[in-house]
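User: I'm putting together a small comparison set for a docking exercise, and I want a reference complex before I start. The sequence is below, and the ligand is pyridoxal-5'-phosphate. Could you produce the 3D structure with the ligand included, as structure tokens?
Assistant: Of course. I'll restate your input first, then give the structure tokens for the complex.
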Amino acid sequence: MTTAEDLIAAADAHSAHTYHPLPVVVATAEGAWVTDVAGRRYLDLLAGYSALNFGHGNRRLVRAAERQLARVTLTSRAFHHDRFAAFCTELAELCGMEMVLPVNSGAEAVESAVKTARKWGYRVKGVPAEMAKVVVAGGNFHGRTTTVISFSTDPQARADFGPYTPGFEIVPYGDLTAMRRALTENTVAVLLEPIQGESGVIVPPAGYLAGVRELTRERNVLFVADEIQSGLGRTGRTFACEHEDVVPDVYVLGKALGGGILPVSAVVSSAEVLGVFRPGEHGSTFGGNPLACAVALEVIAMLRTGEYQARAAELGERLHRRLRGLLGTGAVTAVRGRGLWAGVDVAPRAGTARQVSERLVERGVLVKDAHGPTVRISPPLVVTEEDLDWGLDRLAAVLDGA
Ligand SMILES: *Cc1c(COP(=O)(O)O)cnc(C)c1O
């Protein structure tokens, strides 16, 4: 039998070292649980950074995929297919918008949103050629492509990958005064995560998103909300922007939209904004393919019931109540988040976030360190209360040095 160690060594030898995975080799998974090659089970409290909001092997989603696999999986956009109209109509409706631009990965959706905003700036707002600016926030994570890392503030994400794409201005996250100052007549968009995920689940100060909404409306700037990680139920609402009653001009969606089965991402906006494109100006071979549409349609149907959002809100309260309880132990210095999503800052005496994550693997729980001292927790929204409690008991024990 091939052991986990053999498989890890072979992966190390033959894959680019862009990741430093925790030492678990998953073979199968169901719901909130994964099983490794030796048959050991682990509770997955990361859920693919929110890509697995509906759990591993969700029956409804797998069935939708299987049905579509047997029909047609790819046409390219050279032709129409019979799931495309429903996907675009229903996703637009879920977002309260009018049009959808379907792509594959999240980074590709962010790139597409930047292109959309620039084109809107030139064609609708009247920004002079080549002058369009997009304002972003420090600590952002919007993906890994060359343009997207051009406006990252993470040295690891940027070093040796220049020259960088111009046209971006970075302001501190959560600072409305800085945002106001950064907006000029050439600003076409503000691109923000409503909660910064990779940065450590950073929730902006109350009123920030609403303030950005007001500023961008006043100054005729598009508010582009990257809800790739925060959206689709994670925070207890369909979109994290809803917590401040904010409706952005553009949603960027991904991760859970593909049901944890395949990459499905999209830019969703009004006809005024997405209507700027003409045939040939943007595209993707796999974007909006029949299999992607079939799975995403099932995701949308599940979100329409509101049950996953309600579950995230309810279990989220439990999660945060328990995590706040750890603050008193001295092993945790801060707890942040919303809904079934948390960043837990580990005190130095409890070890690094990486060490805590490694010790949790040994106890059968999967989480992942974010930047710095933060352990991030984003269980599948289908996790049971008992399983969540079980996982949090193990987190408490590990932090306690037990
Ligand atoms: C994951 C993520 C992305 C990038 O998505 P990929 O599918 O990995 O390219 C972009 N923005 C946010 C907020 C994310 O969490």
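The pocket of pyridoxal-5'-phosphate is lined by residues 49, 105-107, 110, 141-143, 193, 197, 226, 228-229, 254-255 (CB under 6 Å). The chain has a mean pLDDT of 97.
User: Thanks, that's exactly what I needed.
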